[in-house]
């Protein structure tokens, strides 16, 4: 729970920082990752529950730049035609990682204890940090900023500046906070399209986190799996993600990219939402299949089919909505919803029962299906009427 909250809060700082030409992408990656590694050490050693929760929040906060600016780094490297391909690789990685973690911890925890899972995070962080040291800067404004600074040193001409530096004043800490939090929050609340997409992304994201509470109740409580076997059930999430990854890339290769190249035009922003029209139907179907087939008289593999369907749908949804909306506040909203989901999931499933609880969640996602279709057909008109169109 605290880590999800940290993941939500981190983008409010690191997202705007990476857009400053004097900072660029790499410094937020490196500094935050060093802090993440340092925080992971006391997390594995701490004896106090409150301190552990706080350190987990810091882990999420310091580890958030990978989710915050990963898409921006890809956008620096790839053009608009090939960016969706790169985004699918990034998104499938973020989808499969939470599914692999419970498998490792499920078998390690009974033998080595819960602290090993914390040491495991630290050990796996070291190779990633080494790779970060060799990561080239991708931000165009930052590269030009450094080149201008080098030319000023060589020539002694202090008037050499980049176009961005000349047109944008330096922001004070107060102005930075305003631009990174207040403006995105204002846009999110007052723009209907932004509000809907943020809430929809947060809803499907939080339902995934509720699975961490729901799976033990289902596969340990109903099917009497041990901890390791229960962890393996998360493989279905990775399988659904990979199926969606392959299917979406086939769509890009056979339909979207040829159309863009033929017309020499990216088309309307709403064209990104075409796959979401089908993808939005899958989450409620997956939830209903999972919720109503997880019974002692039905084989456990049937409920797993529902779990495969759910991430396949939200993979397509998040992939298209990532391209449709790129506000840091969406990361914050998803983090908050995920945090709340972990708190309420267990009481929800215990009090309502698995089937009714999944029906409630399926109903919420079904309502959003209409929103996606409305946004696809009328999103352009909403954007033209929006006062934040320039923002």
Automatic annotation (TrEMBL):
Gene Ontology molecular function, alphabetical: fluconazole transmembrane transporter activity
Q: Which Pfam families match?
A: MFS_1
Keywords assigned by UniProt, alphabetized: Membrane, Transmembrane, Transmembrane helix
Q: Membrane-crossing residues? A: 27-46, 87-109, 116-135, 203-222, 234-254, 275-294, 300-324, 336-354, 360-378
Q: How does it sit in the membrane?
A: Multi-pass membrane protein
Record's GO cellular component terms: plasma membrane
Ranges for domain Major facilitator superfamily (MFS) profile: 1-391
- One GO BP: xenobiotic detoxification by transmembrane export across the plasma membrane
Provide the protein's localization: Membrane
Is the Membrane keyword given for this protein?
yes
User: What's the protein name?
Assistant: MFS general substrate transporter
């Amino acid at each position: 729970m605290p880590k999800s909250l940290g993941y939500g809060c981190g983008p409010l700082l690191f997202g705007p920082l990476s857009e400053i030409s004097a900072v660029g992408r790499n410094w937020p990656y490196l500094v935050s990752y060093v802090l993440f590694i340092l925080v992971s050490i006391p997390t594995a050693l701490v004896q106090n529950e409150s301190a552990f929760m706080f350190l987990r929040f810091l882990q999420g906060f310091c580890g958030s730049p990978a989710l915050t600016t990963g898409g921006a780094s890809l956008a620096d490297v790839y053009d608009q035609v090939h960016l969706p391909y790169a985004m699918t690789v990034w998104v499938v990685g973020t989808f499969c990682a939470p599914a692999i973690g419970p498998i490792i911890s499920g078998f390690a925890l009974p033998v080595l204890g819960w602290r090993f899972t914390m040491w495991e995070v630290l050990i796996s962080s070291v190779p990633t940090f080494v790779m970060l040291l060799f990561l080239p800067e991708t931000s165009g404004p930052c590269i030009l900023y450094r080149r201008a600074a080098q030319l000023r040193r060589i020539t002694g001409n202090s008037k050499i500046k980049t176009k961005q530096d000349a047109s944008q004043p330096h922001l004070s800490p107060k102005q930075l906070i305003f631009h990174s939090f207040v403006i995105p929050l204002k846009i999110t609340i007052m723009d209907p399209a932004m509000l809907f997409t943020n809430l929809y992304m947060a809803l499907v994201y939080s339902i995934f986190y509720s699975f961490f509470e729901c799976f033990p109740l289902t596969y340990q409580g109903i099917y009497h799996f041990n901890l390791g076997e229960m962890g393996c059930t998360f493989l279905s999430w990775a399988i659904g993600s990979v199926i969606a990854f392959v299917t979406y890339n086939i769509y890009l290769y056979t339909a979207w990219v040829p159309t863009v190249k033929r017309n020499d035009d990216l088309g309307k922003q709403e064209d990104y939402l075409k796959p979401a029209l089908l993808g939005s139907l899958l989450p409620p179907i997956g939830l209903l299949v999972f919720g109503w087939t997880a019974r002692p008289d039905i084989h456990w593999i049937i409920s797993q089919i529902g779990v495969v369907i759910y991430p396949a749908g939200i993979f397509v949804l998040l992939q298209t909505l990532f391209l449709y909306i790129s506000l840091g506040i969406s990361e914050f909203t998803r983090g908050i919803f995920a945090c709340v989901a972990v708190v309420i999931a267990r009481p929800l499933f215990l009090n309502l029962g698995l089937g009714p609880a999944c029906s409630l969640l399926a109903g919420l996602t079904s309502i959003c299906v209409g929103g996606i279709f409305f946004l696809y057909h009328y999103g352009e008109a909403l954007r033209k009427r929006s006062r934040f169109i320039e923002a």
